[in-house]
Design brief:
Blueprint: E1 5-8, E2 11-13, E3 18-20, E4 22-26, E5 29-34, E6 42-45, E7 50-53, E8 55-60, H1 76-85, E9 88-96, H2 103-114, E10 121-122, E11 125-127, H3 133-145, E12 150-154, H4 164-177, E13 180-184, H5 188-200, H6 207-211, H7 215-231, E14 236-238, H8 244-255, E15 260-264, H9 267-270, H10 295-307, E16 312-313, H11 331-335, H12 350-360, H13 366-380, E17 398-408, E18 427-437, E19 440-444, E20 447-448
Parallel strand pairs: 1-6, 2-7, 8-9, 9-10, 9-11, 11-12, 12-13, 13-14, 14-15, 15-16
Antiparallel strand pairs: 1-4, 2-3, 4-5, 7-17, 17-18, 18-19, 19-20
Helix pairs in contact: 3-4, 4-7, 7-8
This protein binds N-(aminocarbonyl)-beta-alanine and zinc ion (2 copies).
Length: 466
Amino acid sequence: MPFDTIIRNGTVVTASDTFRCDVGIRDGRIAAMAESLTDAPEIIDASGLYVMPGGIDSHVHIAQPSGDGIVMADDFASGTLSAAFGGNTTIMPFCLQEKGMTLREALKVYHAKADGECYVDVSFHIIVSDPTSYVLGQELPALVEDGYTSIKVFMTYENLRLRDDEILATLDSARTSGALVMVHCENEDAIRFLIGRHEANGELAPKYHATSRPVAAEREATHRALSLAEIVDTPIVIVHVSNREAMEEIQRARGRGSKVAGETCPQYLMLTADDLDATELEGAKFVCSPPPRDRESQIACWEGLQNGTFDLFSSDHCPFRYDDDTGKLNEKGKRNFRWIPNGIPGVETRLPILFSEGVAKGRIDLNRFVALSSTNHAKLYGLYPRKGTIAIGSDADIALWDPNKSVVITNDILHHGADYTPYEGLEVTGWPVRVMVRGKTVTDGDERVAAKGAGNYLERGRSSLK
Ligand code: URP
Ligand code: ZN
Ligand code: ZN
């Protein structure tokens, strides 16, 4: 038999083209694409469906330590299963270097958490929180050679933020070693000041999370990150951009010739700061950083997805349980917003939201959907063309989408470990009805088909942004 599986009668969509053809899969890879293919033990009829590259979610937090008694709601099994049901075939979670640890020590911890647990392929970005000369001079260059080709640095969070001199040293090392640097841009000192002022005024409800992290704090840090990157001539990704002013910083930096990629997330299209002002403590469900802004910011983010300011649409999945002492409503969090863990779940809803609000509502076309949800992630993070497209020789990482399937998102239908979704009750049109990783079906309709461990760890090459 020439093929293990043939996907027949579907419409293939890539970042550049949409066309009718059959797809033949052999040994986990796409072996043929033709008008009509025959001869395989498994024939999948994709009539009426789009055959798309599986989603790549390059911004996901799983099982990351988050402070005293706080526990993320997903481990690698639930997080990757949820990802698969949401149309993804690869996710890139963060591996956190805690202060005092080497990067290799951190990686050992995360590999132990992930190995044998995953339903989709995974690859780690390393969060550098302790950029010692050993980390930057010895470890990072060696790790890039070993396929760990991206890192994240933070300009906020007391225990994670780097000073400007540390950011410069990290960027400089990344340039010489070939690592791509993701930057979380918010001004920690300004935020500390505003939190202190809210506390002094007795303003402790979840809504003050948003006012303590204003647009100006994000815009200033975005400008600073771009300036520091320019000084040492290093490409960067500005992650989870929430508003127009930060977008304009990216546009201006590109105008000066800087190599910069931009990312936004569903929460900046679908939520606003008003969601944090819900009754009782419900607002805690929407606490994430940067916080959701206003309607105008949502419009700006859509423009950014359309006009190329954003290359990436990621979830920033960072799940905590709501009604739980280990999550949003921990004892201290109930009393003061500053102790509510930052982050919201979204790995399973990212693509249905972008498809429904973007493609079905005519804001973006199918090819842009694929670019934003898969291809650009593969290119920027060194996986292309093995991942992120439907082409001969690429891994058969495929999501079959029913563009007409209507689904009301409720937490009951999702597979993450959180006890809520920020998108409860949202009706979407378009849903991933079957997901295959390297030619093997992981989910089919509501059913999990693959066993735990079906997902592999991926070593990656260098970024296309150089
Ligand atoms: O609130 C958020 N975004 N939590 C996740 C950590 C991060 O900064 O990406
Ligand atoms: Zn971040
Ligand atoms: Zn994040």
